[in-house]
Amino acid sequence: MRIKLTVSYRGTLYAGWQVQPDKPSIQGELQAVVTRLTETMTKVTGASRTDAGVHALGQVCHFDTSRSIPVAKWMRAFERLLPDDIRVIACEEVNADFHARFDAQQKVYRYYIDPAPIASPFLSLFSWHRPRLTNFDAMHVACRHLRGEICERVFASQAEGNQDIRTIDHFSVQRDRLVVFTVKSRSFMRHAIRGMVGSLLEVGYGRRQPDEIRAMAQVVQGHPQMVKAPPQGLFLVDIQYN
Fold first, then answer.
1. What pLDDT is stored for residue 219 in this prediction?
2. CATH assignment, 2-94
3. CATH T-level topology, domain 110-234
4. Strand runs (DSSP E) across the chain, as ranges?
5. Does the predicted TM-score (pTM) go above 0.85?
6. 105 phi and psi, to 5 degrees?
7. I want to staple 61 with a disulfide (CB 3.0 to 4.6 A). Which of 33, 46, 86, 138 is the partner?
8. What does the pLDDT look like over 191-226, one tens digit per residue?
9. What's 182-202 look like in SS3?
10. Is the pLDDT of residue 17 over 60?
């Protein structure tokens, strides 16, 4: 049978989703629990490979098992055996052809900025402190230039050949106590969201103009100097399926 999990985690202490040698990972912690219960080495496949320090409210993953274990028992086991900063919030049996990664239609991320003059000690693990942002309207305009088909290469950590062109279905910014960027797409290049947020904040500080963001999103070659936002403000909010 195939089991689908929805997982929430605080990524501060982890080297990201994916298993890495000699480093703690979200995937590794989940696989350890599943393997313990099934007594068989079991791979857990995630929808999105979040980076080190990135958090999730709604990561989705799946695994296969021949053990007939009720969903309620899985939930109790995850609650008991996982570290406190990883929680399975939903568990269900799904069709054998369901795939957490390949069936995902939309990945929704949010990035949180703390614009207060003095950094909050309670928000520092979950936001980027950037005081004195003045050009909020310009950031709003610049977000529109990151919608639709763009080249993510200039914002990402490395080129991916013919996969550099991605379609961003939604990119917006809202301001309340925090400044919140929301972005939706079927897929992203590695570190691209953090690169886009860093560039948008350059607009917020008046160091770039919105039209520069549009030009950067069309760059296929060349790498303008880039400010990459740190990982702690980024959250994987939701994975959407048909």
1. 74
2. 3.30.70.580
3. Alpha-Beta Plaits (3.30.70)
4. 2-9, 45-46, 55-64, 86-94, 106-114, 128-129, 148-151, 165-175, 179-185, 234-240
5. yes
6. -100, -30
7. 46
8. 999 999 999 999 999 999 999 999 988 876 555 667
9. EEEECCCCCCHHHHHHHHHHH
10. yes
User: What's the rounded mean pLDDT across residues 60-82?
Assistant: 95
Output b/e per residue, 137-175; b: 16+ Cβ within 10 A. Answer: ebbbbbbebbbeebbbbbbbeeeeeeebebebeebebee
Residue 212: what residue type? E
Candidates 51, 114, 164, 238; catalytic one: 51
Query: Any catalytic annotation for residue 137?
Result: no
User: Quick one: 35 exposed, middle or buried, by C-beta within 10 A (0-12, 13-18, 19+)?
Assistant: middle
Polymer length of the chain = 242
Residue 115 is predicted with a pLDDT of 96
How far does CA 231 lie from the centroid of its chain?
Answer: 9
Q: Is 171 in a helix, a strand, or coil?
A: strand
Cα 134 to Cα 179: distance, rounded to the nearest angstrom = 12
The owner of tokens 């529109």 is: 144
In percent, how much of the chain has pLDDT > 70? 95
Dihedral angle computed from the Cα positions of residues 121, 123, 127 and 132, in that order, rounded to the nearest 10 degrees? -70
CA 118 to chain centre: 26
H/E/C letters for each residue in 230-242? CHHHEEEEEEECC
Spatial separation of the C-alpha atoms in residues 57 and 59, rounded to whole Å: 6
- The whole-angstrom separation of Cα 63 and Cα 81 is 17
Provide the residue ranges of all domains of the chain, joining segments of one domain with +.
2-94, 110-234
